[in-house]
UniProtKB/TrEMBL annotation:
This is guanylate cyclase. GO terms for molecular function: guanylate cyclase activity; heme binding; nitric oxide binding; nucleotide binding; oxygen sensor activity. Residues 188-311 form the Haem NO binding associated domain. Residues 269-278 have a biased composition (Basic and acidic residues).
Amino acid sequence: KQVYGEERWEEIRRLAAVEQPSFSVHQVYSETLIPRLAKKAIQVLGVSEREFFDQMGVHFVGFVSQYGYDRVLSVLGRHMRDFLNGLDNLHEYLKFSYPRMRAPSFICENETREGLTLHYRSRRRGFVYYTMGQIREVARHFYHKEMRIELVREELLFDTVHVTFQLTFDNRAFTLSSLTMTREERHLPISASMLFEIFPFCIVFGSDMLVRSMGNSLMVILPDLVGKRITNWFDLVRPLIAFKFETILNRTNNIFELVTVEPVLPERGERERERARGEVPLPDEADAPGDERNLRLKGQMIYMDNWMMMM
């Protein structure tokens, strides 16, 4: 409406058979709505799919600023690289407001002073050019940097779109951060037993993916896990990467989310038998739906150098 006027919008809406004239920020809409509107908009406006979605991405950055999200975006970091590295964590934060959001996953690699490679994975299709427009506009709007985005590769793996972008921009901040990383750190010695008390839900596993140790509370819930392959007991939900040691090692700045393959809370019939034996479950466990009976762990993956293991 801002760029092409009210009449064009009405025409697009009519052709796409969309009843509602306006949309609410917190209502959930059908996944087919945007592709349907976009298809008709491209026809009516006489623009390419790339141009349309790119401009939508650019417009979105200014649009969310009206709702105060620009403040959220601007605290993601002082530099463009901090923003890109923090994108997955931003989506974790947004899940509190939009619990049904199917968030994409962003991973940075091959970082240099001239830019970096960005991997974008999503279960939703058709948002590649939109994402490119957004990122380029964030660089301009918040970090006052001109950025060139090149679409290197796009592939579909099972139900996930995996796109590789090459981002070229002034990334001198990378050199500064790499210098601070190489600073001599004075490690305080701390015993493993103390560590497992501080982090009662931690898991320690080796490059063979075998679990070597666990925090005290997790030991109570999954007493048989030690010595077993973590991949047989947990699914990696986020980020959207392979559950392998090397892959995790390259992504330690991401928030990780693991979910048990099997439910850890007993089902109703089993609970009745436990109640009869006098083992009464906690009241809030009583009627958890199927997927909520699985244990969900969310946190950081840290490579413990002296153990040569992941925690």
